[in-house]
Amino acid sequence: MSPIQPNSERDEGHDDAVAGAELEFEDTVSQLPLKARRAGILGLLQGPRPPRIQSINPLLPSVQEAPPALLNRLLPRKGHQFVLLCVCLLLWAAVFVSFLSSQLPVKDGTGRDVVNLDCVDSLWRRKNECGIDGLDCRPFSNVSFAFRCPARCASVQVLNPRAVGPLDVNYRPLVIGAGAYRGDSFVCGAAIHSGIVSNAKGGCGRASLNGEHEDYPGVKRHGIESIPFDSYFPLSFSLSSDDSIRCPTDPRQALLFISLFFASMLSLFASSPKILFPIFTLIFAHVSFASDPPSASYRNSTVLPDHLSMFAKRLLPAFFCAVVIYWTTVKRTLSGLTAQVEKTVLWLGGFFFGAMSNYTFDWIPISRLTGHDLEQQPGAKIALSIILIILIAVIAGQVYYFWLEGRLLQYLALYGLFIVGILISLAIPGVNLRIHHYILALLLLPGTSLQTRPSLLYQGILLGLFVNGIARWDFDSILQTTEALRGDGQFESVVPKILEPAISFTAGNVIATFSWVSPPADVAGISVLVNDVERDRAFFGDGIDGDVKSFEWTRPIGMQLNEYLRFAWVTNGRAVLDYTKAGTLFANGTWTMEQEY
């Protein structure tokens, strides 16, 4: 046996050996071909060897495994368990349908149908659809009808600017006045504002058309601040309760408890990942009929036929997507999972959380993920920044787990394809890329195919967002034309430049004559709004209007109300472009207007 060397000598030799090894390693690395270096990077991305497959070790395993163990003990045969599943679904459907019977037609005291209104329904249609002087929205008075409103209308806002006298109203409920409401107000919003209808449960009432009214005050009541308007409008309405109507309560709260109970039982007692399909159908029906049903036909006696039609239309393609999601994502996450309680709380709870996004995400100040909305909506940019930070943190965590399982490279390749597809879509001329929330869910769902507690929660939320997007809004296109994306919004077009009007006083009237700078070459005419009602639409040189160069407006001397005028060009296709900001014709006959350039 050789003697042990002193520590100093042994360390010296060791240091020399290490130094030599390091130099040799550096020389070797520097001489490696580029291909070998790349292989080293790929090897790093491939993760540890062997891979560390993630699985959830349940808390209190005996408690969490008890429900499926009890089921297997009582009904050991799969066929009997399938029959029990069918019985549970039929029982849920029977209870669910019994509550939906409250949406059948209702009569008022005179035997007439109570009409169903959506949260955005009004008596005066948007964007010149009422015609000159509102002819197509008559009658203006001596008419009343009973109506029924759904719940949750107080938070429904306009998403494009609406002209209300001198104001351009956006991102707030369109309720104008108090007591007497302007005809273009949301009827259900006005009913909540007046106290006739509950925001939480909806309700019924009676609307009476009262013709022209002036001086609409702005008052805050029942969580809605109405918009003031200090001039006249040809259509107004008042609201009152009607005790002759047996108005059923909105069933969505009761249906939530019913759907949540049955879905929880399915999640607790079923250990197979195929339980996705009955739960998916249950939640899809809940959104379609209860928590966030789509808009139905205007002023119909019952919304059920429309909701049934849209449910049947959308469920089949959505179910096909669910099959693909199951094989690519859900099966890997739920297979072999014994943490039944954690699955129910995280995965199913996240599913309901995402499916009810009209409640759970309603506080986020982002209505639509478009550049126009992000610029205009207060707080939208900050909210988007916070969401992106959270999303990056979530993605970083998921990337780490995919790396541990050795699946990072294939998922990087998949998301690389997604990014290429998005870039190609952005480059297609004539259309705009629109990432709806159901598309966002489909893009992010593959990144949740892990059996970890965070993945259970993320996957549930994304499944819920997918269901809500389809059941409420259908498969809206990822590529949309500018016109479809704009809806009733502004064209961002050139507006007329109005010259200082000639104002004269004749025979008890004030006569204001407006003219404008020459129109662009592709313009065929001009439209004029007075107090947000189209009062004239003239076309240049069409043989009827002649050579239109001015617009004349007459008002009686002594009328103490201001009048608000806006002007817009009309195209050859008779489309009315953007209106100017409101110019004010004051009671004393003076005029002021902020010009846009």
Automatic annotation (TrEMBL):
Keywords tagged on the record: Membrane, Transmembrane, Transmembrane helix
Residue span, LCCL domain: 130-227
Family matches, as Pfam families: LCCL
TM regions (residue ranges): 82-102, 254-269, 311-329, 344-361, 382-403, 409-428
Domain of life, per lineage: Eukaryota
Gene3D superfamilies: LCCL-like domain
Keyword flag Transmembrane helix: yes
InterPro entries noted in UniProt: CRISP-LCCL_domain, LCCL, LCCL_sf
Name assigned to this protein: LCCL domain-containing protein
Organism, scientific name: Trematosphaeria pertusa
